[in-house]
Amino acid sequence: MAVLVTGGAGYIGSHTCVRLLEAGYDVVVADNYYNSSPAALERVKKISGRDFKTYEVDMLDKPGLEKAFEENRIDSVIHFAGLKAVGESVEKPLLYYRTNIGGTLNLLELMVKYGVNTIVFSSSATVYGIPEKVPVTEESPLSAINPYGMTKLNIEGILRDCQAAQPDLSVVLLRYFNPIGSHKSGLLGEDPKGIPNNLLPYVSRVALGIYPHVNVYGGDYPTKDGTGVRDYIHVVDLAEGHVKALGWAAENKGAGVFNLGTGEGYSVFEIIAAFEKACGRRVPYQVTGRRAGDAPIVFADCRKAKAELDWAAVRGIDEMCRDAWNFVSKNPEGIK
Ligand code: NAD
Ligand code: UD1
Fold this sequence. Notes:
Rossmann fold, seven-stranded parallel sheet, two-stranded parallel sheet, 41% helix
């Protein structure tokens, strides 16, 4: 029996495959390599010392995706595959709805056809919109402020509806906060194509000398130093959360929703300082205007994941920055 990992060649997916293989699960990966490379999966095999089947397939190609179900005994699915660039989602909403929602519908229909009763879904802290109160709990109000966020909210709703209609289904909605860092080996890491939107990939490219400085989006927020505060979580801790989610699903029918963060908030200035310490280089910055749609401060209440999944993040900010730098300095051109 195997776990089908959609988007398994991507940043979070590849780290999760390593943890699953280490924990004794068999995996099958489906990915179209739109934002990744098959080389990442070769690296997963190297780290874990285990082989697994891979399917190069678009989630929208249902007959192609069906092969993974036909040719393997799949008993659960972890669904990472999708598009995730907020700005692009504003420009191309239909592409985001078609890919993220359409891909999920194909997957769910195949799960019904092949009697697969467990799905773990990559949701996001983006479903909390601009939170009125922090830390955010799983009960905090939900809203979407861009099409990407709307796809996450809609897919959460679709999965809950499917669970209500099919009581033997186990659905785990994992709301990730801000994943950073990389595997200790330096073989896997975040490898975004084009100019990065997120803070850490941008900071690391400044440290590499690719960009001259970090644009700090706003220095006048009501936070500890005026810059935006987020809950950064080590991607290996996040990967472990998926192993725990499968354990939860094995024992629980129903829909579980969990925040996966550290519960700590760090400002942009604190991140830049931690990264400078990790790489031993200066990371110049300029404070610019606020980015539209940004919340001043977001961090998670993770008590539910601790209580019900027996999961908590254990890696701190210095380790996250050290591991991120280890990857980018060894792979300045990404994973090829
Ligand atoms: P990623 O882009 O590195 O990984 C996504 C993978 O899905 C890639 O390998 C890509 O090639 C694949 N993919 C995309 N469209 C596909 C399609 N149509 N068919 C098949 N494969 C397709 O992103 P990631 O950071 O690893 O994120 C994984 C999931 O977690 C996404 O659903 C994302 O929305 C969600 N998430 C990410 C973050 C974050 O900050 N990285 C935060 C919250 C939620
Ligand atoms: C972004 C996404 C959000 C997604 C999350 C995790 C936007 C508007 N939101 O949120 O939907 O769920 O990533 O993938 O893109 N910053 C800078 N300079 C930069 C980049 C970022 O100052 O070049 C600041 C931001 O203003 C923010 C912090 O750094 O305060 C973190 O930004 P980012 O990494 O983009 O994550 P989120 O804002 O949490």
